[in-house]
Design a protein that fits this description.
heterodimer, A: 550 residues, alpha+beta, Sulfite Reductase Hemoprotein, domain 2, globular, B: 176 residues, alpha/beta, 8-stranded mixed β-sheet
């Protein structure tokens, strides 16, 4: 895990002082509402539907136990005792007081955290694979590169007022778990024949109003040039991206308008000036960052212990279900990554209380070398659990309500805060999530359905990633009424695809019934091992449509 | 007739100074300067000492234009709205790539809370909007004591500075 040195600490401390001063001048009426807006959102502070909201950065989803404990304390002290993990792996507080925010930022800085650039038309928090560093299919550990990007993008003087927000995702594994094809920039790290890291650079992907899959801008950029290349690319966007219409301002519109070849030509022309300049990375500089992401001091897990674990899986059905769904293979034999489910009916998807944060921090200390990951599916991960302690962890998670053995199933749905909180939402999303979880809670049925991703967004900004859900639900507003549009066939990962709209939208109360009909079509049409997505891809939209609108 | 009637405070190289330049938005050059005029007007007027160009934020800084600007007594960059970030790139390219050594002045919607980043991009003069508090503006230029990235103020990115400091520490024997 990256630890700040005096430079990093000085910068976040100076940021707190800057924002404290800005807040003071705003409250004194010396900065207008409109002029304060970009200042506060670049510190994560929104003015929401009912209250302010503070979005705290969790850089590339990595969190230390002491940080999570502090987040729990902050949520208890300044908010209503809970927080919400987002699809950008950040944590949102829903009810802070405006004037408390400088103090909250100071508390965050005391544990090497901040809310810098979690909103605004700037380079946002970089996201990555939640299993980075431990995934069995990993070629390059993305974490040091993410940290280098974090530093390069933080307080970048030239890129604080881009045409629109800018999101970067990084993957270094065979399977893309970071959704790199639907980001403004997606980076795939790989190794060439000499073992040197190369970067495949994608640009112009994104969800939102106009969903698009990113185009390849560079296939094999040598690692030394990562930052200069990014700088060239963002500079082209800053200069030529549209600023006349906020709905056409993302980089995807520019890439599309210019055509990928012309866009690439401009980036390369700009890069020709920056290449080999001072931001060219050196082996020493990368190594200095990589030293922060060392292998934890794992003990050896004996063959007998592994056997005992396999036996338990065979004997204990509940444990086996948990392992099948919530436990992921690890690059080291005898170790597993464990996903803590934040999807249970008692809470909104991604929500965690202060007490739970403290308890999870304790678990991270006891079972995970004091570290956690946040996933873009709004769950948490302990990355290094020896199999001989899995049962104990599972039991502890049970008591916390976080052992729901449903990761990757319909019950593990992604959901934005929606109209219950968000100022942008057209419709509520949490009640839809609850209604679906309530209707489909039978575990046998969920397992029978197999892997199924259902994503809900309360508006077309698509924070709930509905376009890439196997089933996507989008809240829409028609003359002041809330309706829900359903799409099918979206997917994330290597074969990313965007969902197709089923047809006219539905009332909220009808959504679970519609989902049920869609599932009936799947169950009726599937061949032996077909997933929902496979069946959809084979039979198309029509049979689903006919059943639902019959 | 000058279009600018209210006095805008001017900060140059971190000091409040008197401003002798008046901004004009007309399509013809005024008979008398010193005046900041639109780029096309400056280009059309020949090389008058009492005229300097202001660049609109959509100006594409080609090498030919940059060469022309070398002769300008100062170059102003217009921020039509404080959220228009194109001027940052223009300033930086003019300073860093094209080596312009004269004054680069931000004009338009120039507010306290954008000055620091502008200054890292090569802007060294700020024609503040009339309502801005000068003391706060002068203070804002010292917001951060260092940056992760190189800027026109410091060409060394922080990762290189760290390597340099590390090497220095290694050279110096630990104090007993």
């Amino acid at each position: 895990m990256y630890r700040y040195d005096t430079h990093d600490q000085t910068l976040v401390d100076e940021r707190v002082a800057q924002f404290r001063d800005q807040m003071r001048r705003y409250l004194a009426g010396r900065i207008s509402e409109e002029e304060f807006l970009p200042l506060r959102v670049q510190n994560g502070l929104y003015i929401q539907r009912y209250a302010p909201m503070l979005r705290i950065a969790i850089p590339y989803g990595m969190l230390a136990s002491y940080q999570l404990r502090k987040l729990g304390e902050i949520a208890a002290r300044y908010d209503r005792g809970y927080g919400h993990f987002t699809t950008r792996t950040n944590l949102q507080l829903n009810w802070p007081k405006l004037e408390d925010v400088p103090d909250i930022l100071a508390d965050l800085a005391s544990v090497q955290m901040h809310a810098i650039q979690t909103s605004g038309n700037d380079i946002r928090n970089t996201t990555t694979d939640q299993f980075s560093g431990v995934a069995a299919d990993e070629e390059v550990d993305p974490r040091p590169w993410c940290e280098l990007i974090r530093q390069w993008s933080t307080f970048h003087p030239e890129f604080a007022y881009l045409p629109r927000k800018f999101k970067i995702a990084v993957s270094g594994a065979v399977e893309d778990r970071a959704a790199i094809q639907v980001h403004d920039v997606g980076l795939r790290l790989w190794r060439d024949r000499d073992g040197e890291v190369r970067v495949k650079v994608l640009a112009g992907g994104g969800l939102g109003r106009t969903p698009m899959i990113g185009e390849v801008i560079h296939e094999d950029l040598p690692w030394q040039h990562l930052l200069t290349y990014l700088e060239a690319l963002v500079r082209v966007y800053n200069q030529f991206g549209r600023r006349d219409n906020k709905f056409k301002a993302r980089i995807k519109i520019l890439v599309k308008a210019l055509g990928v070849d012309e866009f690439r030509r401009r980036v390369e022309a700009e890069w020709a000036h920056l290449k080999d300049g001072p931001q060219t990375l050196t082996e020493e500089a990368v190594e200095a960052v990589a030293e922060h992401f060392v292998e934890p001091p794992r003990r050896e897990v004996s063959a007998e212990a592994i056997d005992a674990y396999e036996r338990l899986r065979g004997e204990n059905r509940a444990f086996a279900r948990f392992v099948t769904n919530n436990v992921t293979d690890h690059k080291v034999a005898g170790y597993k990554a464990v996903t803590l489910s934040l999807k249970r009916r008692e809470h909104s998807p991604g929500d965690v209380t202060s007490e739970q944060m403290a308890a999870i921090a304790d678990l991270a200390d006891a079972f995970g070398y004091g570290e956690l990951r946040v996933t873009h599916e709004q769950n948490l991960v302990l990355t290094d659990v020896p199999v001989d302690r899995l049962e104990e962890l599972w039991q502890k998670l049970e008591t916390l309500g976080m052992a729901n053995p449903t990761v990757g199933t319909l019950a593990d749905l992604i959901c934005c805060p929606g109209g219950d909180y968000c100022g942008l939402a057209n419709a509520k999303s949490i009640p839809v999530a609850h209604a679906i979880q309530e209707r489909f809670e039978d575990l046998d049925f969920l397992y029978d359905l197999g892997p199924l991703e259902l994503n809900i967004s309360g508006c077309m900004n698509a924070c709930g990633h509905h376009h890439v859900g196997h089933i996507g639900i989008l809240g829409v507003d028609k003359k002041g009424e809330e309706y829900y549009q359903i799409s099918l066939g979206g997917s994330q990962g290597n074969g990313t695809s965007l969902g197709k709209i089923l047809g006219p939208s539905f009332f909220r109360e009808d959504v679970p019934e519609v989902i049920d009909k869609l599932l009936q079509v799947y169950v009726g049409e599937r061949t032996a091992d077909e997933t929902f997505l496979d069946t959809y891809r084979r039979i198309g939209l029509k049979p689903f449509k006919e059943r639902v609108y019959a | 007739m000058p279009e600018q009637t209210v006095t805008r405070p001017l900060i140059v190289d971190r000091h409040l100074v008197e401003d002798s330049w008046v901004r004009h938005d007309d399509e013809t050059a005024p008979a008398q300067g010193p005046a900041l005029v639109p780029l096309a007007v400056w280009q059309a007027a020949g090389r008058r000492d009492d005229l300097a160009p202001w660049l609109s934020s959509d100006t594409e800084l080609t090498p030919a234009l940059a060469a022309e600007l070398q002769e300008a007594p100062l170059v102003a960059i217009d921020f039509p709205k404080f959220t228009d970030g194109r001027g940052y790139s223009i300033a930086r390219l003019l300073r860093e790539r094209h080596g312009y050594r004269g004054q680069i002045r931000a004009v338009g919607d120039v507010l306290i809370d954008q000055l620091f980043y502008m200054s890292r991009c090569g802007v060294n003069a700020f024609s503040l909007r009339e309502d801005q508090v000068v003391e706060d503006a002068l203070r804002a230029l010292h917001t951060f004591s260092r940056g992760y990235q190189p800027g026109t103020d410091d060409p060394e990115p922080l990762f290189r500075r760290r390597m340099r400091e590390l090497a220095q520490r290694r050279r110096q024997p630990a104090m007993a």
